[in-house]
């Protein structure tokens, strides 16, 4: 008999596969905070910059939204996660800063220290 | 702080301390000193991290490497191998796959997050709240599956009881007991309600929790439904939270589609569904009996208890009501077990508490800390202290139902009992830091204005009493305070506390009574000397032009009542008879020549 536990394990495996098929294993993962507070601080515009860059051919990046991590006075926040490296957390990201993060960090691998939380 | 290369978190829980945690920390500090690395490393203490059997525990970030069973003599090796050569000492590393670990792998290295412990908010900032897949990948709905597979409703209730979890909405009633009372009722029709009617000014814990991780609330509620024998859940949330509502709706639809909600959940015999009920934003509807009236379609007004909702609630049926944060803790209690959960916190308060840290602190934000953390650790550690070199004056917890605690209470540990003993309450998690520039009388007036406005009007003590208190406070801040006003406020306050019908009224005088208790001298100054030391009550100030006035005329131009006179390039004068104390001149002066006295 299939128990609820068996079922949920199967569902989890399927979910993980779906996430991976959407590019989760890309070298870099970018998370943009999209709770009410972050949106009020301007994260929708920031998200649009990343989406636009990917539409225009930026590769090797997995983009996702996330809820509020709690760093209210530094919102909007953006995390760049690379396996095996220290996750980089940027605060007060504007569309201009987002474009620079794409150019310098995502394309050239340079961490922009002055904006790091 | 920003440029430290490593942060070391040393568990300072009582069990670790018994096992020489302090000696381990000293050995680490000595070794760092010897290697001249002390300035590269931030060391801080944390409350119990819940791994007592393997203590003393040390967590090194970045990377969230956890060491356990440490001896003081291990310090040399850890510093040399890990911090100097960059290679963790594998023989001492313990790996524990707790639900909250992922948060630390991403956020753990910063001062702000490193001191926290995320249980209710474990996925906030990690998962995409609009994707069920993300939640499933984080062991989402595993607690539900376990409950349906191997636990009877009675076992679930026992587990919640043993965990020591208490209601996070403010009153702190033991959650397991509430479940047991509801389960015991013989009726076949029962309801489960999630109270998301967050209304305290400055509080946003529930909104963030729902917007960041809506599925965990659903999972908690389904488990609750199973435990008490209910098939219908309702989330009461205010319409002012449109994004939270949208994400909840999406989560409910996704969960239904995957068979996690609705008929025969996960192939079991248990059926449960959840619907959302929008509130119009009345503060009183956060009170459970008023909320029930509101859901039933009546005006939101409380009724006397007993009978408690667990006996006779929504539509007269047994109803289980818990707060958002309480529900978010349930899946963790089931997966990690009651024993683990109850190892965190203090003797009477287990687990963690979420706070919305706001006011005059460097780092404002949403935080979750183990019970037992001191107010000082939160305000000066996580919060980073008071900006602009100002002095700490008080911290307000519990919103309009809470109180203000001055400096001597900074070492109070966060738990239900100690906060009450200190004269405030835990509340739902608002925490506002106040510095020397804030007037306590004005602050008390702000809160009573709020409760007066939100009083539903059903019972006289709250409706009339808060009105009279507000009148007296308004008088005091306008400079018309009379001798005896403080005593009158105290008498009124006590009467409202004793005679009001619901918790809102009973707690409404708290901000005033606690400020009178701790800052009586400020009230007396306002009344007798007509002075406001924080310079906030403008009616009690005089604006005076000092000798460094250059006579530029900027103040004269902005004064709406022509109270300022003086020739160009000569010192100007404000006529105190004409001045309406609007403060325009103060803002206009570029030479700081106008003083408030």
Task: Give a quick summary of the entry.
Chain A is α+β, with helices and mostly antiparallel strands.
Structure commentary:
The complex is a heterodimer of chains A (117) and B (597). A four-stranded mixed beta sheet of chain A has the order 2-1-3-4, covered by helices on one side. In chain A, 43% of the residues lie in helices and 16% in strands. Chain A contains four helices and four strands, in the order αβααβββα. In chain A, α3 (43-55) packs across α4 (95-107). Chain A is globular, with a radius of gyration of 16 Å. In chain A, β3 and β4 form a beta hairpin. Chain A is an alpha+beta fold and 117 residues long. Chain A has a single domain (25-115), classed as Glutaredoxin (3-Layer(aba) Sandwich), CATH 3.40.30.10. By secondary structure, chain B is α/β, with parallel strands linked by helices. Chain B folds into five domains: 6-96, Glutaredoxin (3-Layer(aba) Sandwich); 132-339, Rossmann fold (3-Layer(aba) Sandwich), CATH 3.40.50; 352-435, Ubiquitin-like (UB roll) (Roll), CATH 3.10.20.600; 440-529, Up-down Bundle (de novo design (two linked rop proteins)); 542-596, Alpha-Beta Plaits (2-Layer Sandwich). Chain B contains 25 helices and 17 strands. In chain B, the strands form five sheets. A five-stranded mixed beta sheet of chain B has the order 10-9-13-11-12. Chain B has a four-stranded mixed beta sheet with strand order 2-1-3-4, with helices on one face. In chain B, α7 (142-150) packs parallel to α11, α10 (205-212) packs across α11 and α19 (460-477) packs antiparallel against α20. Chain B is globular. The two termini of chain B are 38 Å apart. The relative contact order of chain B is 0.08. The mean pLDDT of chain B is 91.
Molecular shape of chain B: globular
Structural class of chain B: alpha/beta
The stretches of 5 or more residues of chain B where confidence is low (pLDDT under 50) are none
Helix content of chain A: 40-55%
């Amino acid at each position: 008999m299939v128990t609820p536990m068996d079922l949920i394990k199967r569902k989890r495996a399927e979910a993980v596969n779906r996430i991976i098929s959407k590019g989760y294993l890309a070298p870099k993962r970018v998370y943009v905070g999209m709770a009410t507070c972050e949106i009020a601080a301007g994260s929708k515009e920031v998200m649009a910059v990343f989406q636009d860059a990917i539409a225009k051919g930026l590769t090797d990046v997995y983009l996702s939204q996330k809820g509020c991590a709690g760093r209210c006075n530094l919102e909007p926040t953006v995390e760049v996660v690379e396996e095996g490296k220290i996750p980089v957390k940027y605060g007060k990201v504007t569309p201009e800063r987002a474009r620079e993060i794409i150019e310098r960090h995502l394309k050239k691998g340079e961490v922009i220290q002055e904006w790091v939380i | 702080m920003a440029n430290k290369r490593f942060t070391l978190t040393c568990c300072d829980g009582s069990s670790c301390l018994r096992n020489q945690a302090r000696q381990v920390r000293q050995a680490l500090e000595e070794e760092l000193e010897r290697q001249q690395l002390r300035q590269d490393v931030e060391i801080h203490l944390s409350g119990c991290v819940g791994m007592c059997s393997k203590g003393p525990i040390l967590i090194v970030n970045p990377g969230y490497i956890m060491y356990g069973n440490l001896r003081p003599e291990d310090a040399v090796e850890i510093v040399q191998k890990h911090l100097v050569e960059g290679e963790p000492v594998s023989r001492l590393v313990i790996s524990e796959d707790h639900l909250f670990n992922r948060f630390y792998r991403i956020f753990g290295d910063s001062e702000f997050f490193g001191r926290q412990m995320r249980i209710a908010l474990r996925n906030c900032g990690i998962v995409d709240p609009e994707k069920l897949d993300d939640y499933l990948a984080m062991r989402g709905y595993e607690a539900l599956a376990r409950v349906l597979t191997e636990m009877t409703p009675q076992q679930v209730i026992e587990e919640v009881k043993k965990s020591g979890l208490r209601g996070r909405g403010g009153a702190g009633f033991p959650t397991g007991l509430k479940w047991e009372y509801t389960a015991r009722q013989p009726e076949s029709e029962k309801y489960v309600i999630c109270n998301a009617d967050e209304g305290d000014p400055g509080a946003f814990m529930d909104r963030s929790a729902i917007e960041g991780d809506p599925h965990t609330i659903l999972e908690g509620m389904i488990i609750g439904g199973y435990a008490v024998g209910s098939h219908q859940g309702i989330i009461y949330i205010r319409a002012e939270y449109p994004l939270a509502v949208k994400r909840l709706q999406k989560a409910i639809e996704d969960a239904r589609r995957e068979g996690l909600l609705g008929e025969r959940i996960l192939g079991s015999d248990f059926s449960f569904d959840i619907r959302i009920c929008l509130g119009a934003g009345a503060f009183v509807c956060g009170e459970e009996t008023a909320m029930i009236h509101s859901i039933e379609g009546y005006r939101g007004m409380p009724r006397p208890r007993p009978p408690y909702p667990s006996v006779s609630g929504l539509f007269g049926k047994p109803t289980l009501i818990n707060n958002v944060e309480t529900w978010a803790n349930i899946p963790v209690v089931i997966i990690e077990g009651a024993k683990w959960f109850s190892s965190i916190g203090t003797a009477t308060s287990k687990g963690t508490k979420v706070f919305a840290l706001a006011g005059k602190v460097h780092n404002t934000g949403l935080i979750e800390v183990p019970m037992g953390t001191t107010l000082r650790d939160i305000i000066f550690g996580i919060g980073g202290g008071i900006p602009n070199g100002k002095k700490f004056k008080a911290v307000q917890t519990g919103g309009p139902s809470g109180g203000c605690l001055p400096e001597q209470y900074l070492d109070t540990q966060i738990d239900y009992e100690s906060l009450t003993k200190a004269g405030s309450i835990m509340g739902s998690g608002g925490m506002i830091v106040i510095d020397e520039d804030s007037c306590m009388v004005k602050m008390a007036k702000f809160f009573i204005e709020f409760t007066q406005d939100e009083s539903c009007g059903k019972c006289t003590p709250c409706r009339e009493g808060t009105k009279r208190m507000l009148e007296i406070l308004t008088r005091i801040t306008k400079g018309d305070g009379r001798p005896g006003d403080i005593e009158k406020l105290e008498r009124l306050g006590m009467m409202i506390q004793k005679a009001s019908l619901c918790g809102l009224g009973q707690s409404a005088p708290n901000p005033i009574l606690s400020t009178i208790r701790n800052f009586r001298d400020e009230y007396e100054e306002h009344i007798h000397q007509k002075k406001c030391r924080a310079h906030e009550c403008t009616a009690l100030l005089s604006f005076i032009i000092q000798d460094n006035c250059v006579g530029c005329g900027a103040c004269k131009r902005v004064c709406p009542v022509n109270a300022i006179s003086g020739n160009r390039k000569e010192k100007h004068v404000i006529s105190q008879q004409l001045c309406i104390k609007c403060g325009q001149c103060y803002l206009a002066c570029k030479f700081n020549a106008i003083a408030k006295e």
